[in-house]
Design brief:
Layout: H1 15-22, E1 30-34, H2 40-46, E2 51-56, H3 59-62, E3 74-78, E4 92-95, H4 102-113, E5 120-123, E6 132-135, E7 148-152, E8 157-160, H5 169-173, E9 175-178, H6 182-185
Parallel strand pairs: 1-2, 1-4, 2-3, 4-5, 7-9
Antiparallel strand pairs: 5-6, 7-8
Bound molecules: S-adenosylmethionine.
Length: 186
């Protein structure tokens, strides 16, 4: 049986996804784009940020982007993001990779959190289509008595159920970021 490695596949996202990411980029940001593909988003990020590192392991995908179109503040690194060192001056990371496994998400998050100045991770890896901005210096303890959505550092998301009579629309809309959850503690 052929099992496709979706995480390794290049597939660009839609303009709405890119706009959500671009709206988060500030002029002082030093950005690391993990799994940058053919650089179509990374080049747009470079127009907004101080510096951008594009990390892509597939040379054939990178070759789709003409070197002559790379701006001066774009540094392209062809390497495996799971094992290569991340640049020390990164302040914001992008991970548009909705087939990223929980294990790899957790590893990326942990390694980004270890960089002294890296504050944010913009990603669709946990919610799969929706883009979220994770504050890497935050995250609370999982509370089994709090009814509602949580998103964990391990890459899992979940809903803690409770008495349906107490659930409000606001509780359904809110997600809390946690550093442990029933799935990674199991
Ligand atoms: C779904 S594509 C998204 C490309 C780009 N972020 C975009 O939105 O246009 C994911 C990319 O991540 C790359 N990738 C997956 N795992 C990687 C790894 N461990 N290191 C570097 N690149 C990786 C794949 O080669 C692919 O090009």
């Amino acid at each position: 049986m052929l099992i496709h490695d979706w995480e390794a596949a290049f597939a660009p996202y839609d303009e709405e996804t890119y706009q959500t990411v671009l709206a988060q980029i500030a002029p002082h940001d030093v950005v690391l784009d993990i799994g940058a593909g053919d650089l179509r988003l990374t080049k747009r990020v470079a127009a907004l940020a101080r510096r951008v590192y594009a990390l892509e392991r597939d040379p054939a995908v990178l070759a789709r982007s003409e070197r002559g179109t790379w701006p001066a503040n774009l540094i392209v690194i062809c390497a495996d993001a799971l094992t290569t060192s991340f640049p020390a001056d990164v302040t914001t990371a992008i991970l548009l990779m909705r087939h990223c496994t929980h294990e790899h998400f957790a590893l990326y998050r942990q390694r980004l959190g270890a960089l002294p100045g890296c504050r944010r991770l913009i990603t669709n890896a946990r919610w799969k289509m929706d883009v979220e901005v994770i504050a890497l210096r935050s995250g609370g303890v999982y509370d089994p008595d709090r009814v509602g959505w949580y998103a964990c550092r391990c890459g899992s998301i979940g809903f803690t159920s409770g008495d349906p009579g107490i659930i409000t629309p606001q509780m359904l809309a809110e997600v809390i970021d946690v550093v442990s959850c029933p799935k990674c503690e199991a």
